[in-house]
Amino acid sequence: MNFAFSDEQEAFREEVRRFLAARSPMTEVRRAMEGADGFDPALWRAMAGELGLPGIAIGEAHGGQGFGPLELGIVQEEMGRALVCAPLFATACLAAPAIAHVGGEADHAAWLPAIASGERTATLAWLEPGRGWGLDEVALVARPDGGAFALEGRKRFVVDGHTAGLWLVVARAGDGSGRSKDGLGLFAIEAGAPGVKSEPIAPLDPTRRFADLELDGARAVAVGEPGAAQPGLERALAEAATQLALECLGGAQACLDMAVAYAKQRVQFARPIGSFQAIKHKCADMLLELECARAAAYWAAWACAEGDAELPRAASLAKALTSETYMLCAAQNIQIHGGIGVTHEADPNLYYKRARASEELLGPPSWHRARIADDLGI
User: 7-120: what CATH class?
Assistant: First the structure.
């Protein structure tokens, strides 16, 4: 098991970092997050056209770059470091893996090329009001309706749900009478279809948007076999948790770098504050937690790339550790900056909000630890 990246992968990381530094500095992040959609379509087109980022882990046969979870993870880590506003996580880390693991070749050919090119953004909707993040909590029923399915109900906290061109909705396959046959299915609804209303949610994190979906008899087509989607969806969500962990890792690293840089240049009592023991201890604690989280995140990324049976456990561990580490680093970064750190005009405030929202997204640390305990029979 080798967690070192190859020279080619490190060169790719540098290229992505240069691109984001040039195209999405913090001034552009702030401009994009204040827009109606929460991201800059021109930046999205550049990400797709110049680097092919939406299709980085999609096979060449379907218009992608033909790489895998490790390369996508590098992108996510750099996206988290730069706090980029873009629908990449929803499209490439949630929707594309769901199609890949649940759908057949016909589904791949129908949906993946437009996602890989960046022409179509997409997202995955499974969380429901009053229910948890697990797939076993899904209650919405997809009722057969001619050659399609009709969906009626509500989905919550859909990442970039207000701008997605394709919604992939998780529901229980119905028997035609409105009753569930219990098996989960994945159902595709294109933007603009009747019977679907997306309601943007006032964001805690202005750099990532969420929406609720109201489904009022919305017609959808099945992706893969209705009622047989759960194994593929479990795999897709484990991969998504890993990618979110890598994004958190990048954000935590940015917070540490920011705190160290400020501690070197901020002077009190005629000395840089970084020379004070209390500040040194904060930075050392951040580094220690960050390196522990990095090991967990890279293990999960390796498990994704290898298709290892440990992936569900590795993904939950990575998500729990990295989201907590991100929160620690974001909070300590604000402390080191002092009062200015919590103001809206200061960048530490934005990283803290992203850390807080990411801690809950795909399940909080306590939920993932409970999954690990259940898996181990504890």
Answer: mainly alpha
Give the pTM. Answer: 0.95
- Check: CATH 1.20.140.10 for 231-376? yes
CATH match for 123-227 among 3.40.50.1220, 2.40.110.10, 3.40.50.970, 3.40.50.1240: 2.40.110.10
CB atoms within 10 A of CB 345: 8
By the 8 A CB rule, do 357 and 207 touch?
no
User: What does the H/E/C string look like for 94-163?
Assistant: HHHHHHHHHCCHHHHHHHHHHHHHCCCCEEEECCCCCCCCCHHHCCCEEEEECCEEEEEEEEEEEECCCC
Residue 357: CA count within 13 A, CB half-sphere: 23
Give the type of residue at 133.
Answer: W
Domain(s) of CATH 1.10.540.10: residues in the chain: 7-120
Q: Give pLDDT, residue 102.
A: 97
Angle at 39 between CA 35 and CA 45, to 5 degrees: 130
316-338 residue pLDDT tens? 999 999 999 999 999 999 999 99
Report pLDDT digits (tens) over 261-289. Answer: 999 998 888 898 888 999 999 999 999 99
**Measured between alpha carbons, how far is 375 from 17 in angstroms, rounded to an integer?**
37
Q: Please give the pLDDT value at position 339.
A: 86
